[in-house]
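Dear colleague,

Thank you for sharing your sequence with our group. We've completed the structure prediction you requested, and as agreed, I am returning the results in plain text so they can be pasted directly into your records. Please verify that the sequence below matches your submission; if there's any discrepancy, let me know and we will rerun it promptly.
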Amino acid sequence: MKLVTLFKKSIEMPPEYAPGKCNIGARGRAIRLATGLGIIAIFIGFGVVALGSVSPVLRLFLFIPFYVGLLAVLEGTMSFCVLHASRGKYDLHEPSGMAFGKSKTQMKVGSEEWKRLDQHKARLMHLEAILGALVLAVLLALA
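Please find the predicted structure tokens below.
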């Protein structure tokens, strides 16, 4: 019973900004994860349906939506938005879960060192998404 109580309290507690680790809250994570998984599923389905009618070279262009989808999934699972990092901001209580638009809860990152940590994390996430998208696109092109 205590474990359930502790878990329930941890869900209710607002997350804290951690340089290079966390710059979005629960709502932003959930929306990014759902969006990313949806994009990946749609374009994998498109790629499978187009296996016979589209050349393998054209299927490599699925790299772009795979990259976008994987980046969104990474943002959702890592609690970190690369767009916020590039702008030197964080938003733990996003009303829409998207980095663009006007959010009244968006805050500026406090120090230059924190901004560097955020930008380093964002570069690593971009690299991971690029490599993952390349693998997915090549697998569909070779299928």
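Summary note from our side: The chain has one domain: 22-92+103-142.

Kind regards,
the structure core
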